[in-house]
UniProtKB/TrEMBL annotation:
The keyword Nucleotide-binding does not apply. It comes from Sulfuritortus calidifontis. Belongs to the CDP-alcohol phosphatidyltransferase class-I family. The keyword RNA-binding does not apply. Coiled coil: none annotated. The chain crosses the membrane at residues 12-31, 76-99, 130-152, 158-179. Pathway: Phospholipid metabolism; phosphatidylglycerol biosynthesis; phosphatidylglycerol from CDP-diacylglycerol: step 1/2. It is a multi-pass membrane protein. This is CDP-diacylglycerol--glycerol-3-phosphate 3-phosphatidyltransferase. InterPro entries: CDP-alcohol_PTase-I (IPR050324), CDP-OH_P_trans (IPR000462), CDP-OH_PTrfase_TM_dom (IPR043130), CDP_ALCOHOL_P_TRANSF_CS (IPR048254), Phosphatidylglycerol_P_synth (IPR004570). Its EC number is 2.7.8.5. It catalyses: a CDP-1,2-diacyl-sn-glycerol + sn-glycerol 3-phosphate = a 1,2-diacyl-sn-glycero-3-phospho-(1'-sn-glycero-3'-phosphate) + CMP + H(+).
């Protein structure tokens, strides 16, 4: 456990903490129907996601703690925003449900694997990263259109379907990865 917290107070991790701290403000702005403020706060969170990972690599400050914290921050920002936008009718409820189900399956697989093996290394796949990127782009576009009327509305249905397809593909990929890891672990027991 001590190894996980080694390198906890790095600049990339502090940026990730700031992203987590933005969540209640994004939620508050959405509940207050201040879509413009929600857009700018969400945009700041999305940019911080790009910055922290690149800084971790550039400064060689990657850590096990950061590997856990970053996806938690992403999920807190995205899921809270997705659900509130779906409740407000700004994005389809089916999309929010799909993302919640995908994340539930991925989390369930991780918990089951950790319970079986006693260990878990967080390593997002390129499909998982693509799904998160598309979700950030989609939510940013929905918020930007609602707040600033940029003429993005005709693009949104295609973006929903693309993000949904990548989310499903990444979810299926993670199921396959957990199944292969579990099979490999069980073979070591024999």
């Amino acid at each position: 456990m001590t190894r996980m917290f080694h390198g906890m107070w790095t600049l990339p991790n502090l940026i990730t903490f700031c992203r987590i701290l933005l969540v209640p403000f994004i939620v508050w702005a959405l509940l207050e129907r201040d879509i413009a403020l929600a857009f700018w706060l969400f945009a700041a969170a999305a940019v911080s996601d790009l910055i922290d990972g690149n800084l971790a690599r550039l400064l060689d400050q990657r850590s096990e703690f950061g590997a856990w914290l970053d996806p938690i921050a992403d999920k807190l920002v995205l899921l809270s925003t997705l659900v509130l936008l779906a409740v407000d009718g700004l994005l389809p409820m089916w999309f929010a449900v799909l993302v919640l189900m995908r994340d539930g399956v991925v989390l369930g697989g991780a918990v089951a694997y950790r319970g079986l093996t006693g260990g878990l290394k967080v390593a997002p796949s390129w499909l998982g990263k693509a799904a998160i990127l598309l979700e950030f782009v989609l939510v940013s576009a929905v918020l930007a259109e609602a707040a600033l009327q940029l003429g993005l509305a005709p693009l949104l249905p295609s973006l929903f379907w693309l993000a949904a397809a990548v989310a499903v593909a990444s979810g299926l990929h993670y199921v396959w990865v957990w199944a292969m890891k579990t099979q490999a672990f069980l073979q070591t027991l024999n």
